[in-house]
């Protein structure tokens, strides 16, 4: 029950105002087992348990067994060597299942690239107004996800992060679009992931290779987490922080977007997300599809977010954007966030913690 609960994204808690005891049945007299139980049957049950948990066979799991060990580490009976071996086995066995609206993929990025190699880069952009702890933790997490792949950062003041480009301008939509365009022009890889400065990306987010070079793709698996309280929330998601596409497609779009905003100004009817609507104010006729990483990334909400935070369903004019609404004290793959989020950020910043 404990493994099923924790590994399926839940948690077990203890009410310390209660008292309970367990009366075991092997104390003699009338307390014997009510049925015969051989050593062979016991071993068969143990083998089933090993296969279920060590073999990652529990169908409801959203976390690997190694997450549970790390969450409660140190665990009696387990050594650091055992933990390291399980981590390696988990990394080897993990297959990132991702979806779009019209098809499913059960292959990893590495497998897709083995068939048709595609270079990728992360385009990171910031207005330099972020809480220092949050900014450093997000950068540290992103670097750990990329594993040395191309990283271009665009900022309003110099930062020591990847290949840094400094742009001028006041914080706002036009400056944001100019930053993205400057980054796209500097990127050398074929495919680009947009990476915002206040998002903690999960490695699963980078497991997707777009199957159609003429579309933009949005990872829909995000949770919002409040910086101060750790309150967590998820619902239908489509934002530029989850976008990836071919560089040339994005270059054409953002050159036109910047030109239109310079000429006409920015309107919310134009929107921030490429390819997501057919209103007359759209930038172009670019199309999009959605996919879903097997574990979520965290969009951190704080006082300097460019877009407002909506913590209630009533805050949405269109209720279809509240589909899949879930509130929780923690997030699958990340653990408990409520009351612990700054502690988690500090551990990520120091390199002492990683998402499962």
Largest sheet: spatial strand order: 5-4-3-6-11-8-12
Residue share in helices? 25-40%
The total domain count is 2
| Beta-strand content bin | 15-25%
Find the count of extended strands (DSSP E, 2+ residues): 16
CATH architecture label name of the largest domain: Alpha-Beta Complex
**pLDDT averaged residue by residue:** 85
CATH topology grouping of the largest domain: Spore Coat Polysaccharide Biosynthesis Protein SpsA, Chain A
User: Can you tell me the overall shape?
Assistant: elongated
User: Low-confidence stretches at least 5 residues in length (pLDDT < 50)?
Assistant: 94-116
Q: List the secondary-structure elements in sequence, H or E.
A: HHHHEEHEHEEHEEEEEEHEEEEEH
Radius of gyration: 24 Å
Distance from first to last alpha carbon: 20 Å
The main pleated sheet reads as: 7 strands, mixed
CATH class of the largest domain reads Alpha Beta
Can you tell me about this structure?
The structure is a single chain. With 356 residues, this protein is of the alpha/beta class. The protein has two domains: 50-94, no CATH class; 98-104 and 117-310 and 320-349, Spore Coat Polysaccharide Biosynthesis Protein SpsA, Chain A (Alpha-Beta Complex), CATH 3.90.550. The protein has nine helices and 16 strands. The protein has helices at 2-7, 39-53, 65-72, 80-93, 109-115, 132-146, 173-186, 247-264, 341-349, and strands at residues 98-99, 104-105, 120-125, 150-155, 163-166, 191-196, 199-200, 215-219, 222-226, 232-234, 243-246, 287-291, 297-301, 326-328, 330-331, 335-336. It has a seven-stranded mixed sheet with strand order 5-4-3-6-11-8-12, sandwiched between helices. Helix 6 (132-146) links the parallel strand 3 (120-125) and strand 4. Helix 6 (132-146) crosses helix 9 and helix 7 (173-186) packs antiparallel against helix 8. The longest helix has 18 residues, at 247-264. 30% of the residues are buried.
